[in-house]
Fold this sequence. Notes:
The protein has one domain. Helices cover 69% and strands 0% of the residues. The chain has helices spanning 2-22, 26-44, 51-59, 63-84, 100-116, 122-125, 131-154, 156-159, 166-169, 189-216, 224-230, 245-253, 258-276, 283-295, 301-308, 313-316, 323-341, 345-351, 357-377, 381-390, 395-414. The protein starts with a helix and ends in a 7-residue tail after the last helix.
Amino acid sequence: MKAEKVMGLIGFILVLILGNVLLKTDMLYFRLLMGVGFGYTLSRAYTGFAGSVYRAYRTGSTKLMRAMNAMFFVTSLVVAAILFRSDPTSYKLWINPINMGLIMGAFLFGFGMCIAMCCATGVLTTLASSFTRALVVIVFFGLGVLLGFPIQNSMGWVKNSWITSPTGAMSGGGVFLPDLFKWDGLNGYLGAVLLIGLFSSIVIFISYQYEKKRKLSNTYIGNPMEMEQENRKKFDAASFKLFNAETYEHIFVKPWTLIEGAIILTILFTILFSVTKAGWGASTPHGIFMGKLLMLFGVSPETLANFTKMPATAYSTPFFQNEGLVQNFGIVVGTILYLMTAGKFVKSFKSGLRIPVREALFYGFGGITMGLGTRLANGCNVGALYSPIAELSLSGWIFLVFMVLGAIVSEKMFFKFPSSK
């Protein structure tokens, strides 16, 4: 375990050095570091967008759902402050279209997400701890994304928005919330933030009521990791020594709370948005990666481009020159680095190697359903939920509603509340 921790610390240094030396541009290096940050945070805070739904259904705990919605509000507040004195059309805002594709895609995504027990980012963080399950999901998820590209890129019911605001029209369709409140004295941003605050408060209130109901019905069991996060030992500054086991445990091992994770994710998103002037996406690279795998079996980039209705360069560009792929790779690296520095990697990796064939088929079904859903909705839990909400788009809230509905249907079909006996 000690050797594992040392290797983890060395890994951090290697990422900083090799990423800077081997990646061709500063932006690629930046994307790698952002991915590492996201992966490390998601893993150490034991948080994730998918877990906020199925964790609530299976354990009764809505702590993660509440933390996520608080994060949505705070991030949107920061983004509104950034955009207030800027031209929003100079940003690549994720104002997704509002249409049947969004509704169907969100439902399919939520349905498949609960079966696969992860999402586009979650499958990357689980590669290190539930390798076989994650590998099955990532293959079928990528296949679903690849098969969905032609629909996303050609069908009007996915591309055209039922409702479009002026700023949304410049982004391909959809509603940019500040456009609805131009009379508020702050160019619409005050009204937009207040509305998002209202939406977040409603979700948090419903979450509290649901958890209360589960407790009263004796079907609440709670989440063990959440309990560990809340009951972690406080760091005693009076006995602080730089080089001792307790200090190392506090800096590298102890899990962060859900709120701490949400705060760091907000900071990382803000940095990403400020530098790239765009949102955080994770699902499209999965489809491109699947295309690259097919190229190993003789499929040409031109054939893939004709099928997916995308430029051939999307597939012919080398892996480590594609910003999205590099960022997703960074998420995997960040997860591994946390598990190694915490001394948990080997144990976690070994524990997730074997799964029954029936479960593998189940996870594959969830992965492909989830992947297709991302193309209809123009994104996943980060590309169609977090980024649009943070960037003041109405579409993110619609995605949230139908994603939760899809998840509920999935859970009712395949899982039951834990017994109170």
